[in-house]
Amino acid sequence: MDPFEAIADPVRRSLLRRLADGPARVVDLAAEHPISRPAVSKHLRVLAEAGLVTAEDHGRERHYRLLHAGLAPVRSWVDGLAASGPPIPASALDGLDLEVRRTGRERRATHIPPTEETA
User: Fold this and answer.
1) Residue 55 CA neighbour count, 13 Å, CB half
2) Is the pLDDT score of 119 beyond 80?
3) Where would one find the signal peptide in this protein (predicted)?
């Protein structure tokens, strides 16, 4: 599964945030969410298919942990957005400000206030 598709779900994003703090068992993760343990397991399975988490067996317990490398495509995409620079250079905004002030001055100079008619 695509990591973008996997993190599209808010429960899965929440699980990833929790696993960023350290490994956890399904029962611990389920205690922190208002959904059943099988539902948490299903979300973890999706995250594992996307390469975002891995499971390690410790005796009878299974501990899930975040795989930071799985987030590389997401991080790369976000970094690409930030690297594009500001959409409008500051010099263009200075020119726009100057033009707005000039136009305002010209309108005020040519504006003739309506005359009041008195009876």
Assistant:
1) 15
2) no
3) none
Q: Which two tokens stand for residue 61?
A: 């317990």
The amino acid present at 85, given as its one-letter code, is: G
Q: How far apart are CA 87 and CA 109, in angstroms?
A: 34
- Per-residue burial over 70-102, b if 16 or more Cβ lie within 10 Å, else e, is bbeeeeeeeeeeeeeeeeeeeeeeeeeeeeeee
Give 74-89 pLDDT, tens digit per residue: 999 988 887 766 677 7
Q: H helices within the chain, ranges in order?
A: 3-6, 10-20, 26-31, 37-49, 72-82, 90-110
Rounded to the nearest 10 degrees, the angle between the axes of helix 37-49 and helix 10-20 is 80
Nearest residue to 40 via CA among 15, 17, 10: 15
Check residue 83 and give its pLDDT.
72
% of the chain with per-residue pLDDT over 70? 90
CA 63-12-82 angle, to 5 degrees, is 115
**CA–CA separation, 104 and 54 (whole Å):** 63
d(CA 95, CA 27): 60
